[in-house]
Amino acid sequence: MALPPTGETWSSRFITAIGPEAESDHRTGDLATLWDKDKRLLTSLPETCATNLTILARLLGLSMADTLKLALRSPALFYQKPETVYGNSVRTAQALALTQPLFLKMARTQPQILGRDPKSIIKLIRAYAAMLDIPIARVSQLAIKQPSLLNQNAESVNSRLTKSAAVLSLSRGAFIELALKHPTLLVRRPEGFEDFITAFEQRLFLTREQILRAIRRQPQILSMLPQTLIENLSSLSDLLQVPLSELSRAAISFPPILYLSPPRILEVLQTAATALDIPLEDMVMTALRMPSLMAREPLMMARKVKLVLRIADALGTDLTPTIALRKCPALPTYAMNRLLIRWLIVKLGLWSWGWDALIPRADDKIHTLLQEYAQSLAPKAPERKRLQALVERRMKGFTIP
User: How far apart are CA 98 and CA 166, in angstroms?
Assistant: First the structure.
């Protein structure tokens, strides 16, 4: 049988051989461009390739459509013996201590690993373990999160680690520690990190050190396009009517606002402001001082502030939400249990100073006050038992004997 003269002819014959699943997946155009990826297809008969994929789909337990998607990204699967591919996948999964379904899940993002010789992958895993000074089992976990690690060259990764650490002004060990938490950093180019920093310097009015501080707090932003993050922050600046320079500084202490939805942030602050009956601009100003408020549940924030107002009122202070937030922008970040225990302190008459001294007071000092009060109660008094139960429920790690 003569070889097909064009990709279009090859595609047509392949689709005819494999059946309607390929047609329904509308992959004809993709098939016609496979020669750009793998020249060996020029000498592979389309009917043979169709048979290979049919057998491979059955062995892997996948649909033909899913198997074809894998092959389009890893053309060697068209002409490799399906039994060999399947055997390699089983042995590689065993080497990684993974179940076959989990290995196939990885292969959906990196189909090239299906046809790889297991020995080469085992060698690569051992190289990573030595390079990162971690057990082989930990390398497998990294590969689950970042399957492309199995298609890298160990020496190249090792070189990138050193260069990336230098770009980010970190020791090699410190960068590895970050990368183990965020494996995508292991496969990123150091030049990309430098481009990221430069873009932020030029557009967000930040110094290099400020940008590096944000990266250390939220390393995953390095896996995002800087232009996308900058545009997102610019949109938020427009929505909140706040200068971009001010929002940029807020992003240093709370980097998630770089990628959180601007309309959602506006909704959070507007809902909290409405619940507290204060102007939106007051809530925005508070959030600029405590940027994590932009990502919190708005009604819960309002509940916490209102409880603080009750505490202040019980202590004889006429307090408004705006003044409370201006004086202590961190109020909505406190745990509700913390505030409830301080409300109990006030109700029991154990505090006579200001609310702004009570709320931030350390838990061990609060616990001491409650212990002293408990000692004034009879050992079996109902009030003492209720206090014991409250403390155990609201103050983790503390008890009343």
Answer: 35
Say if residue 130's pLDDT is above 60. Answer: yes
In angstroms, rounded to a whole number, what is the distance separating the alpha carbons of residues 396 and 346? 20
DSSP secondary structure letters along 179-235: HHHSGGGGGS-HHHHHHHHHHHHHHS---HHHHHHHHHH-GGGGGS-HHHHHHHHHH
Band of pLDDT at residue 248, cut at 50, 70 and 90:
very high
Q: Quickly list DSSP for 20-85.
A: HHHHHTT-HHHHHTGGGT-GGGGGS-HHHHHHHHHHHHHHHT--HHHHHHHHHHSTHHHHS-HHHH
| Whole-angstrom distance, CA of residue 52 vs CA of residue 79 | 7
Q: Average pLDDT, stretch 49-56?
A: 92
Structure letter (DSSP) for residue 242 = -
SS3 317: coil
Q: What is the pLDDT of residue 5?
A: 47
3-state SS, residue 325: helix
Given a contact cutoff of 8 angstroms between Cβ atoms, the answer to whether 147 and 168 are in contact is no
pLDDT, tens only, 206-245: 999 999 999 999 998 998 999 999 999 999 999 999 999 9
Q: Output DSSP code: residue 2.
A: P
Q: Please, what's the b/e burial string for 16-40 (b: 16 or more CB within 10 A of its CB; e: otherwise)?
A: ebbeebbeebebeebbbebeeeeee
CA angle centred on 59, ends 54 and 61, rounded to 5°: 90
pLDDT at position 16: 76
Phi, psi (rounded to 5 degrees) for 63: -75, 160
Identify the pLDDT of residue 3: 47
* Mean predicted lDDT score pLDDT of the chain: 89
Confidence of residue 383 (pLDDT cuts 50, 70, 90): confident
H-helix or E-strand spanning residue 383: helix 382-394
Number of helices and strands (H, E) in the chain?
Answer: 24, 0
Residues 6+ apart with CB under 8 A from 273: 279, 280, 282, 283
pLDDT in tens, 1-14: 444 445 567 777 77
Domains in the chain: boundaries: 1-80, 262-334
Distance CA 233, CA 227 (A): 10
